[in-house]
Amino acid sequence: MSNGTKVPQNPSLPKLNLTNQQRENIRKAVLTEQNEVQFRLAATKSAKDFTPTIGAKLPKGVKAQSLPTPVLSQIPELRDYMYVKMKDQVLIVNGMTNKIVDMFSETQPPS
Q: Are the beta carbons of 44 and 84 closer than 8 angstroms?
């Protein structure tokens, strides 16, 4: 029985407000990482139809990676976040909830 007060399920991270310059730094840093999600694998096959959107939870089988150290030293607030490269997008994911908090093109600089 709840008396109308919402108890957060888990501590939420401060809202991430990346600038396009920061997004570009991340994009360049992860571009060379060989960890694009491949949908040929049994674990990720079901994720093939997943359309990444902000606020969506990563599908089962898709594993987020820690951001590269150079990025974390430039943007320390990202240390609680992970990323996934999927469908030509870089997805920035809350490490605690697996929810997408930001996304941008993997191949194009942010406009």
A: no
